[in-house]
């Protein structure tokens, strides 16, 4: 039971960045998106990924690879569109 | 070493929501903030919290309590300010 909750939790927190990435890509409205948040969050997720690799914990590696790609994409759009 | 990386990762991903909450509180600009993201993310973090409680894993409980409070606050502001 707790394993199911854990996998569902991981799936939700990972996939949640998809609608944000899509909204930002579509609207290019990044004024309300915090640069501080996505800088610190992306770095934190990269460290989670390193932690998972060190432990050989593949669920942590997989979930954080996807989250890193999505959060990194949002961070990149924030940096790019705030100038445009 | 890997424990240090893990705690640092947890601290960064947890605290990263502070600048977003502050920016949204200050500007009330929620157009670029995804309702889908904060709905799914807040639910996911609540499940992480339940998972931590089930396992008696207090670092998971602590980190996700703080993240739940911050993400829930951003979700609440998104719902409130989009009408205003």
Structure description:
Two copies of one chain form a homodimer. The first copy, chain A, has a single domain (2-81), classed as Monooxygenase (Up-down Bundle). Chain A contains four helices and no strands. The first copy, chain A, has helices spanning 2-15, 17-27, 35-55, 58-81. With 84 residues, chain A is mainly alpha-helical. In chain A, helix 3 (35-55) runs antiparallel to helix 4 (58-81). The termini of chain A are far apart. The interface between A and B is large, with 43 and 43 residues.
List the helices and strands and how they pair.
2 copies of one chain form a homodimer.
Chain A: H1 2-15, H2 17-27, H3 35-55, H4 58-81
Helix pairs in contact in A: 1-4, 2-4, 3-4
State the main characteristics.
homodimer, 84 residues, mainly alpha, Monooxygenase, 4 helices, 83% helix, elongated
Provide a brief overview of the structure:
2 copies of one chain form a homodimer. By secondary structure, chain A is mainly α.
Structure class of chain A: mainly alpha
Backbone shape of chain A: elongated
Q: State the CATH architecture of chain A.
A: Up-down Bundle
CATH class of chain A: Mainly Alpha
Question: What oligomeric state do these chains adopt?
Answer: homodimer
Gyration radius of chain A, in Å: 14 Å
Q: Roughly how many Å apart are the termini of chain A?
A: 48 Å
| Element order of chain A: H for helix, E for strand | HHHH
Round the mean pLDDT of chain A to the nearest integer and report it: 95
Number of domains of chain A: 1
Tell me the strand percentage band of chain A. Answer: under 5%
What portion of residues of chain A is helical?
A: over 70%
Q: Main β-sheet of chain A: number of strands, strand sense, barrel status?
A: none
Greatest contact between two chains: A-B, 43 and 43 residues
β-strand number of chain A: 0
The CATH topology of chain A is: Monooxygenase
């Amino acid at each position: 039971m707790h394993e199911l909750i854990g996998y569902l939790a991981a799936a939700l927190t990972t996939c949640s960045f998809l609608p944000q990435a899509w909204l930002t890509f579509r609207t290019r409205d990044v004024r309300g998106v915090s640069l501080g948040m996505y800088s610190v969050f992306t770095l934190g997720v990269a460290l989670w990924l390193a932690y998972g690799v060190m432990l050989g914990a593949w669920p942590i590696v997989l979930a954080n690879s996807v989250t890193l790609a999505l959060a990194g994409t949002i961070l990149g759009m924030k940096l790019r569109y705030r100038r445009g």
